[in-house]
Amino acid sequence: MRNSLGYGYMSTTDKLSNRYQKQNPLTQYPRPPFPRQPQNRPGSVNKMDPEPDHGEDSYVGFGRLKGRKALITGGDSGIGRAAAIAFAREGADVAINYLPSEEQNAQEVIKLIKAEGRIGVAIPGDIVEESFCKELVTTAVGKLGGLDILVNNAGRQTAQKSISDLTTEQFDNTFKVNVYAPFWITKEALTHMGAGASIINTASVQSFDPSSSLLDYAQTKACNVAFTKALAAQVAEKGIRVNAVAPGPFWTPLQSSGGQPQDKIEKFGGSTTLGRPGQPVECAPLYVLLASQEASYITGEVMGITGGEMPY
Ligand code: NAD
Ligand code: MG
């Protein structure tokens, strides 16, 4: 089936927004000020105001991932949800992992994947456990029938003003989710991946330009970059590419559920060159590119998507 642009692959939505029309990026999406909106971690996209755009009604696929099998952690919301929707619209079968408390957001994503005629697999569970990380990969491989794309995207971010407020428990959990889990998941995934496969890690501007209130988080995001580069060099001989995306401020529940203090939510994204936060769908084309064969000469790279804040 062709979409209303006249090309593309099997998009059932076909209610193309103006996302593909020329327009001013400054005014394309909401700008601060935003209302304060505290919610408990891990947060829900349905409690966000304004509502984020993950591509539900705006992302159109062009067949770039036809027949691929993808696993995305943190696929229920935010950047992972945008990647999941885009991958399915590009023709991939997609498994998502998330915390059990995020079942509602996850089911919304599974419904959208299935609406594209693709296989959508929901695998809830806490990735701080090594045994679950292995099980996650084997379940995804079993239900998808293989694995071509791994997106290590789940993340924990909790702002603390001072090192004296940062508990060992938080420090440990941030490292478990952001550093250990991608290591465990990737280690298992590589036993199932072959030439042409792609691994994408979600790093951050924090990897290079840490905020004082994100002492633990920023360190983990720097780890993601080193992991990406070292692993890319290691698995190149197998024909597997490894890259990272380094987003700037994106409008996701990670931020309003403790990732930022509420006074920073009010002006979130305002200090970027474009003066607004990114919407998750604006990340999707980068994940699609890195996952696809069009990125055949791209490995060991960290790609910034920051609204003009330089990640280096
Ligand atoms: P998000 O809250 O929508 O996604 C994060 C997801 O991580 C959650 O949905 C949850 O499913 C998952 N997660 C957290 N702890 C988990 C655990 N213990 N077990 C299993 N899953 C767990 O927020 P997001 O902003 O889309 O975050 C996605 C990634 O983007 C994260 O790695 C984050 O560090 C990174 N990032 C976000 C921003 C931003 O401004 N939003 C900027 C740079 C980088
Ligand atoms: Mg979530």
Give a description of the structure.
The protein is of the alpha/beta class and 312 residues long. The protein has a single domain (60-305), classed as 3-Layer(aba) Sandwich (Rossmann fold), CATH 3.40.50. The protein has eight helices and seven strands; from the N terminus they run E-H-E-H-E-H-E-H-E-H-E-H-H-H-E. The protein has a seven-stranded parallel β-sheet, with helices on both faces. Bound molecules: nicotinamide-adenine-dinucleotide and magnesium ion. Belongs to the short-chain dehydrogenases/reductases (SDR) family. It comes from Neolewinella maritima. Residues 48-57 have a biased composition (Basic and acidic residues). Residues 10-27 have a biased composition (Polar residues).
Across the major sheet, the strand order is 3-2-1-4-5-6-7
Runs in which pLDDT lies below 50 for 5 or more consecutive residues are 1-15
From the alpha carbons, calculate the radius of gyration and give it in angstroms. Answer: 18 Å
Number of helices: 8
Question: How many β-strands, per DSSP?
Answer: 7
Order of helices and strands: EHEHEHEHEHEHHHE
Portion of residues within helices? 25-40%
Protein name: Oxidoreductase YghA
EC number: 1.-.-.-
Keywords: Oxidoreductase
Family: Belongs to the short-chain dehydrogenases/reductases (SDR) family.
